Amino acid sequence: MIALLQAGYYAEPHAARYDAATMGMFVLIIAIGVIGFIVQARLQSVFKKYSKVQFPGGLTGAEVAEKMLRDNNIHNVKVTHVGGHLTDHFNPQTMTVNLSDSVYSSSSVAAAAVAAHECGHAVQHARGYAPLTLRSQLVPVVQFASTAATWVIILGLVILASTQNELLCWIGVGMIAMSALFSLITLPVEYNASARAVEWLQTSRTMQGAQLAQAKEALSWAARTYLVAALSAIASVLYYVFLILGRRD
Hints:
By secondary structure, the chain is mostly helical.
């Protein structure tokens, strides 16, 4: 009887601590979601604002991209047009800088900043920037892991409920952790591309003064979206860790 009472005495504080930790995780996830919404809304606002500001050079986003590539002695990358809004990206497989509707033919500060940022990735590729190389290598692994992870964890929890075997659950967590790792590696890739873009815009005198400051602001808000994504990915890993540990009680 004493042993049972002692077990209950120790189990209750443990459960209370777990419940508090779980509640804390939910609050963290909600907070990150709110911050992400605010950052995304601010990015859209800044981009919209500076999409109306024409810079003195009058170059379109496509022309800015082509000029930056030439200045960096990159001649095997083609600047192309893709549909959508803020769907701009550099594709190392096709060696193309793909600019969206709102960037390709626009001569605004925002368009020039985005075009230069995407060319920053092309420069990274040409210079063998290690984080970009690593991120590219992880793409197929992360695509598979992000698709399968949730199902693996669900199956793992079913097995855990009947056999107390956690192995499959932790494999699923490992898969989700790959996405978090990918998000963390993405941070230096994106920040470095923006830094290269700003440096080139300044040294090439494509932008100066107020327009350069506006381009920096637009790129800084874009970079913050990747920071929020990384925090969200880490929170997801922690959520599933607590979920699995809670099944032990």
